[in-house]
Amino acid sequence: MHFLDSFYQGAEAAVSSNQRFRRTFGPAGGSKLERGAGMANVSYEKRNRIGYITLNRPEALNALDDGLNDELWDVWRDFNDDLSLDVAILTGAGKAFCSGADLKTFIPKWEKANMLDVRKNIPRGIGGGITRGQHRITKPIIAAVNGHAIGGGFELALACDIRIASDKAKFGVFEVRYGLHQGDGGIVRLVAIAGLATALELTLTGREVTAEEAYRLRLVTEVVPHAHLMTTAEKYAAMILRNSQQAIRSAKETIHDVVGRTLDDALRLETINAYSSLGDFSEARERLAQFYSKTKPAKEA
Questions:
Q1: Mean pLDDT over the full length of the chain
Q2: Which residue blocks in 82-207 are alpha helix, DSSP H?
Q3: Which of 100, 152, 185, 186 is an active site residue?
Q4: pTM for this one?
Q5: Total domain count for the chain?
Q6: 206 phi and psi angles, rounded to 5 deg
Q7: Which residue among 110, 177, 276, 291 sits deepest, i.e. has the most Cβ atoms within 10 Å of its Cβ?
């Protein structure tokens, strides 16, 4: 890509991002879903600027069938649009985070598919599109991995920005055991997060990975006792909420956008996004004033 193309795309992204950020600081509104109303497969609650999203098919180990994927699509769209929400925490009901695609419905669907069906599938990945399709949401998403995150469930966890694991969590590229491999961002994100060697080893072996090993492989940020999982996820959410939401959303967007670019293009894009994210400087001015008032010497305060 030529630098000018990159420059204009970055500038356009910065402008649209700034418009989104400005809307964030308006009055809460725009939300259509409340507490998972009318949803059989997802629990969705909103408290203190956090969207709590729970996969709720415990009898199927929270396997992703069409019903769960469709409900998650609506939830992610609502989370993105709801001006009262700034962070999401994703977890699973029961003993699993997510056991991947529901093989009872997933395999027959693709067994009868044609090449055009493959193309039609591109805009809408599993997990309600957070793996592909709604992956550009700039609000932070935390995975609280409470149990098995295998196959497509591993891909779903990797699509989140921060992963906190219970000591009971397990991970694995189990797709290769059943005649296929990752197709919803699992390879792309595994390479980006853990590196080529780890991505190859885990994918080629299809072996199970414990929470402690996942931490050593940099797949998760922290491993905690199972009883402390949600409080730890909320701790990370609280740290995010203390920051400028305008700044962190621009930063998340920029981090994703610089991947794969040349050094010069990446540096230019970072500069454009960083300085334009200040907007009219009103929030930065207010935050700096608060900072200076706390750091004045006692005789000046």
A1: 88
A2: 103-111, 115-121, 152-158, 186-194, 196-205
A3: 152
A4: 0.85
A5: 1
A6: 65, 25
A7: 276
| pLDDT tens per residue across span 146-200 | 999 999 999 999 999 999 999 999 999 999 999 999 999 999 999 999 999 999 9
Is 112 domain-assigned? Answer: yes
The domain in which residue 180 lies consists of 30-241
Q: Does 59 participate in catalysis according to the annotation?
A: no
Give dist(CA 233, CA 192) in Å, integer.
23
Give the E-state strand segments of the chain in sequence order: 42-47, 50-55, 87-92, 96-98, 141-145, 148-150, 162-166, 170-172, 208-210, 222-224
Positive or negative, the CA dihedral 20, 21, 27, 28 is positive
Selected catalytic residue, list 13, 36, 155, 185: 155
- Nearest residue to 90 via CA among 54, 60, 140: 54
Whether residue 34 lies in the annotated active site: no
Catalytic option among 101, 144, 159, 251: 101
Number of H helices and E strands in the chain, helices first, is 12, 10
279 belongs to a structural domain: no
Between CA 104 and CA 94 the distance in angstroms is: 20
* Residue 101: active-site member: yes
Say whether 155 is catalytic.
Answer: yes
Count of CB atoms within 10 A of residue 259's CB? 9
Q: Which residue has the higher pLDDT, 6 or 41?
A: 41
CA distances from 152 to 176, 291, 296 (A): 11, 44, 52
CATH number for the domain harbouring residue 54: 3.90.226.10
In a domain, 69, yes or no: yes
Per-residue pLDDT band at 32 (split at 50, 70, 90):
low
Do residues 211 and 170 lie in contact, with contact meaning Cβ atoms separated by under 8 Å? yes
**How would you class 171 by CB atoms within 10 Å of its CB: exposed for 0-12, middle for 13-18, buried for 19 or more?**
buried
